[in-house]
Amino acid sequence: MDKKNLLSIGELSKISKLSIQTLRHYNKLEILIPEYIDEDSGYRYYSKSQILITNIIKELKTFQFSLNEIKEFIKRKNFDSIKNIYEKKIFEIDKKIKELTTSRNSIFQRYLAFKKSLHFSKMSADRFNEIITKDIPQRNIAFVEKNESFTSENLIFSINELQNLLYQKNLKTFGPFIILIDNACELGKKVQYKTAVQTSEVITENFNFFTKIPQGKYVTILNKGKKNSPRKSDEILLSWMKNNSYQKSGPIIYIYHVSLAHTTNPNEMISEIQIKVEKI
User: Based on CB atoms within 10 Å of each CB, which residue in 6, 138, 188, 280 is the most buried?
Assistant: First the structure.
């Protein structure tokens, strides 16, 4: 074999800007096989036309082609096979873009929820225990329903159960966790309640763990810290409703704007109590 028109592995490495180790690896994977290997010395030699192959390899790597995909491309049989390889890669990238867009939207919703939590945490003290009426639009929620003692420990387990359900169904949610109870109760007493979270998806299937919190007028109060029990805020709201000729027309809703997911200090926790009302 006349080696004068061939390139040593070192020369090809210098020309292609690919390391000798990389070229040896490509040989092992049969992506770029030397034109000639000296039987005595084991030295590898490449044709000048293989410089073009190194350019193809480098370009395909910038397109995020795997080495197996590059190998398939290099062994191209005809124009249709190249077309199919490109189309397959475009489909894979489009799928990744869709997945990343979904993930980005979910993260952004969590970010907005965190910003809202941050806003609540910086509120002045006079905003807490102030009763406000709000017109709140309809909210779609996913939930698990429980009939048990209303304790912090049970709430943690019910939230975990809800999260597992959401992961199983691959559903996207946003905002803080919500508790819905038909009637005011004391901590530790057995009660039927729903642990829920808002979902941004339109649910078309007949799942039994989706429902809607109806739009309407709500009386609300913010509660901060461990000492100020949300149940005491229930009493404040119910008393205010009675004095202002309102009656309850829906469950009592607890929204945990700042929870143990945001802080390790119970005195920094902030909840909002909402009750849908109508005039008597």
Answer: 6
